[in-house]
Specification:
By secondary structure, the protein is an alpha+beta fold. It has 3 helices and 14 strands. It has helices at 19-27, 52-68, 127-140; strands at 5-7, 13-15, 37-40, 43-46, 73-77, 81-84, 87-89, 93-97, 116-123, 145-150, 155-163, 166-173, 179-180, 188-189. The longest helix has 17 residues, at 52-68.
């Protein structure tokens, strides 16, 4: 059996995990239900705890999106999205095709990139990670639209047009500017209005 290897930040080799490895670890209790992590190119990355500013923006934006999406769409809060056999992410918010959730509720079915219309990461301390590592991953796997929101300053960086490991358009919006998403007709929100 060949074991995939990745390199840690310090340059040493590490075993690269797959989604199937994660499923087995969950099944046998090695990873508990209370643990929050992402699988990024084979590496298990623990998630940071959330701040009040983060949760305030996430909850208000979730309500705005939930009111705007039509039939056939679902707003996922920290829903797991599988981008590849070695990548599982949990964006703060995602607008996802409802058909993904019509499967057996006991299954480990997760949305894939093609099921996602919009991914949103809300950051207080992880802006650089979300704008570099996550943006590269999301572009490479064809996520249509990706927002990174600075929860403190309420500035949103909107990425559209995935192209390789980059984006054809990256635009910053201030809190008082309207945010729209082509995949959600009629949706418009200003972060300044969210309280």
């Amino acid at each position: 059996m060949t074991v995939a290897v990745t390199r840690g930040a310090e340059g040493f080799p590490r075993r690269a995990f797959t989604v199937d490895d994660i499923r087995r670890m969950i099944d046998i209790g090695l990873i508990g239900p209370e643990e929050s992590f992402e699988l990024i190119e084979g590496e298990i990355v623990p998630m940071q705890s959330k701040s009040v500013a983060h949760d305030k923006v996430k909850n208000a934006l979730n309500l705005a999106l939930a009111r705007a999406v039509g039939p056939g769409l679902y707003v996922g809060v920290e829903s797991t999205v599988q981008l590849a056999r070695d990548i599982l992410v949990e964006p703060d918010l995602a607008v996802i095709a409802q058909s993904v959730y019509d499967a057996d509720p006991k299954s480990f079915a997760q949305p894939r990139a093609e099921d996602v219309l919009l991914l949103i990461e809300i950051a207080v301390t992880s802006m650089a990670y979300d704008r570099k590592v996550k943006a590269r991953l999301y572009a490479r796997h064809g996520i249509r639209e990706y927002w990174v929101i600075d929860a403190t300053e309420r500035v949103t960086v909107v990425h559209t047009g995935p192209a390789g490991e980059g984006w054809s358009s990256i635009v910053s919006h201030q809190a008082d500017e309207a945010l729209t998403c082509d995949a959600i007709p009629g949706f418009s929100v200003r972060l300044a209005d969210l309280g």
